[in-house]
Amino acid sequence: MVVKFLEYLKHEKNYSPHTLVSYQNDMDQFAAYLKDTYEIEKTEEATSTMIRSWMASLMQEKIAARTVIRKASTLRTYYKFLLREGVLTKSPMAKVTAPKAPQRLPVFVNKKEMETLFKVADFPQNFDGMRDHLILEMFYATGIRRAELITMKDADVNVFNLTIKVLGKRNKERIIPITPFLKKYIEEYRAEKKKLGIKNACFFTHEDGDPMHDKQVYLMVKKYLGTVTTLQKKSPHVLRHTFATHILDNGADINTVKELLGHANLSATQVYTHNTLEKLKRVYKQAHPRG
Question: What is the C-alpha separation between 38 and 257, in angstroms, rounded?
């Protein structure tokens, strides 16, 4: 049933390849635990006690609470699927409570460091340098996810309306405004692609026309962020956090930020307000006579 479940997620729920890999890994680990601990071959035969036992073993192995929560979510989705298929009449997850994760504030690059990045970064004077510069500008100007950037098509970038269209989680499209400043880099990049005869429908490509890949984008961002910040995390998602934090600091409405980020719930966006609140507290403490 696990294979059928993954096919369902892929074709009916339109989950991304990255998410599907996570679900498969979770199910493989759970199946291995059932076989080794209870000599059970079929995941549909698991009980709530067995699931709680697996989660407890993960916690004993010092697996992060957030990871255990994600694995519990995978099982919840799996058993919901089995109910839908008529394989089960009751989900064993009904009696399972996942651990609570400690709240973590999003890591972000400060404004001065971002300004330094674009002023002093040594981008090569070639196609790769032009493209990488634009990618960093795009991440910081729009807050899009890495997968959204990689799958963006040339037709999705509209310099006349100053917008880009991205395909987010669950195949939800959204339109994001861009600045005239970003338009300039887009037009220069497009001119270079035309000069090289690149005809791939993907917007971001290699010089030979092949599309970009996840790890290539990650390593490029990590390299350039490493020149301006000492943050332990240096990833495209950190730039997404940076985008959200900076525009909230500058007075953006939280509901607008929610739409720009493509969050399904406001609670996912509200975590960025904590950074802004901490900044207000510091300013208050420094400025108030009794601070």
Answer: 48
Which pLDDT belongs to residue 56?
Answer: 93
> What residues pair up with 176 in beta bridges, in sequence order?
164
pLDDT at 155 over 70: yes
Of the residues 70, 165, 183, 237, only one is catalytic, namely 237
**Catalytic status, residue 237:** yes
Res 252 pLDDT > 70: yes
pLDDT value of position 69: 92
Please say whether the beta carbons of 172 and 14 come within 8 A.
Answer: no
Task: Give the active site residue among 70, 76, 169, 206.
Answer: 169
Phi, psi (5° rounding) for residue 163? Answer: -140, 160
Range of the domain at 21: 2-95
CA distance 280 to 287: 10
**Domain co-membership, 117 together with 177:** yes
Catalytic, out of 71, 145, 146, 246: 145
How many domains does the structure of the chain reveal? 2
Residue 88 pLDDT > 70:
yes
